[in-house]
């Protein structure tokens, strides 16, 4: 053969092979782009679907106003020796004892209608405890004794302003015992025996 007689090796034609290899590379790149792009598109669409199905946040609700209740407080009048009722609103509490403390705190604050408070304005209501039998133990601070000079009439008015105020407003209260600094006292000012619990007396309340 001519090539053999000339002693030379025949040259291969690499053109078609290189073209084919190039096409394969291009196809591989396109495939990668297609599939990875498709996955990204799937992820994006899935996120959009989830967002569209997510529940809308609940609108903020305005805080409900605190419950309140009306109570009747008993004060003195300059015109007579009777106790006179005056309406007042207090915040409702989790128990009658809590509400009783708030009621007595309002009694200590005094009248808003020109009546006379029978208790010293410095008086602290330390605690109210109501037994199952219906006795309300009212513990006042020492100011109830130290900040006022009681006569017999004013001491009687101070005691029954507390007793009648609690009994009139709280069905659970049948009678009231008055303590000072957590201890039983004989009297507030030397006139009314505090060693007993008091039943309400509405005969001293103005009609």
Characterize the biggest β-sheet.
4 strands, mixed
Give the strand line-up of the largest sheet.
Answer: 3-4-5-6
Number of spatially distinct domains: 2
Number of helices: 5
What is the C-alpha radius of gyration, as a whole number of Å? 45 Å
What is the mean pLDDT? Answer: 81
**What structural category do the secondary elements indicate?**
alpha+beta
Model regions low in confidence, pLDDT < 50 over at least 5 residues: 1-6
**Ends: how far apart?**
147 Å
- Quantity of strands, as a count: 6
Residues in helices, as a percent range: 25-40%
Secondary-structure element order, N to C: HHEEHEEHHEE
- Inertia-based shape: globular
Strand content: 15-25%
Question: Any overview of this molecule?
Answer:
The chain is α+β, with helices and mostly antiparallel strands. The protein folds into two domains: 17-50; 68-204, no CATH class. The protein has five helices and six strands; from the N terminus they run H-H-E-E-H-E-E-H-H-E-E. The protein has helices at residues 2-6, 15-53, 96-109, 143-146, 152-169, and strands at residues 68-77, 80-91, 125-130, 135-140, 175-180, 183-184. The chain has a four-stranded mixed beta sheet. The chain has a two-stranded antiparallel ribbon with strand order 1-2. A hairpin with a 2-residue loop joins strand 1 and strand 2 (80-91). The protein is globular, with a radius of gyration of 45 Å. The N and C termini lie far apart (147 Å). Mean pLDDT is 81; it is low at 1-6.
